[in-house]
Amino acid sequence: MRIIIFGPQGSGKGTYASRLSPLLGIPHIATGDLLRAARDDKEYGQKIRQYQDSGALVPDDIVLKILKKRLDQPDAKRGFILDGYPRNAEQAKELDKITTLDAVINLVVPEWVLLQRLSTRVQCKNCGEIFNLRTLPPKKPGICDKCGGPLFQRDDDKPEAIKKRLEIYYQMSAPLIKHYRDKGLVIDVECNSPDIPPEIIVNKIMDLLRTFKKVGGQGKQSDEDGHS
Ligand code: ADP
């Protein structure tokens, strides 16, 4: 399956995608992580650091080049869960040229939940796993449960950058959902509380994906709360 996981910063894209990946047998590809891994790149590193640290979008040509390279890896041939791409109309257009999607998981989360999650989020420097000091703490403080790597708070999770990232999302990224809704690809998943364990949402997404596949990925989907 070729899936996009879509939603604002702090909606849980990375947390859910990293758990969906082994269940679906496809890699979780996060452009934010790909770009962070390229921060020391001779050609693009300086530009990536400059944009990422301020919370702005990295230029489309750089992101596309790095994404294409990742999608060309053998493990992505069977499918992928794409997290963090596309974020503007140009990126959506480019993605349409290079692949055909099966579903778009749209995470619908109120802003107060996003702000609370982002301010207490930490991530593993080594493997990218995400934790939350309030709702999903690591077993040992400062250490990743998965690989033992060090946990850190991202520079762009500071209040000013958070504000800027959310503004960009609502202005440039959120409108893209219409493009995918028109194609009958969108599965809406509501999450109204910061305290719902990730596994509950992941199970809900798996159920919705099964139903979605059965009905041929067409038409409007609604989550179990009856929202559409
Ligand atoms: P978040 O979505 O929570 O901001 P990410 O890890 O997805 O976190 O992205 C971090 C940063 O990486 C973004 O603020 C942006 O600078 C850059 N980035 C990630 N994906 C893209 C993209 N598709 N286009 C442009 N910049 C991107």
What does this structure look like?
The chain has 228 residues and is α/β, with parallel strands linked by helices. The protein has one domain: Rossmann fold, CATH 3.40.50. Helices cover 43% and strands 14% of the residues. It contains nine helices and eight strands. The strands form two sheets. It has a five-stranded parallel sheet with strand order 2-3-1-4-8. Strands 6-5-7 form a three-stranded antiparallel sheet. β5 and β6 (130-132) form a beta hairpin. α1 packs across α9. It is globular. The two termini are 22 Å apart. The model is unreliable at 219-228 (pLDDT under 50). Bound molecules: adenosine-5'-diphosphate. Residues 9, 30-32, 35, 51-52, 55-58, 63, 84-85, 87, 91, 156, 165 line the site of adenosine-5'-diphosphate.
What average pLDDT do the residues reach?
A: 91
Question: Taking Cα atoms only, what radius of gyration do you get, to the nearest Å?
Answer: 17 Å
By CATH, the architecture is named 3-Layer(aba) Sandwich
Determine and state the CATH class: Alpha Beta
Query: How many strands in all?
Result: 8
Number of helices: 9
**Order of SSEs, N→C?**
EHEHHHEHEHEEEHHEH
Overall, the morphology is: globular
CATH topology: Rossmann fold
What fraction of the residues are assigned to beta strands by DSSP?
Answer: 5-15%
CATH superfamily: P-loop containing nucleotide triphosphate hydrolases
Supply the key terms:
single chain; 228 residues; 9 helices; alpha/beta; 8 strands; Rossmann fold; 5-stranded parallel sheet; binds adenosine-5'-diphosphate; disordered C terminus; 3-stranded antiparallel sheet
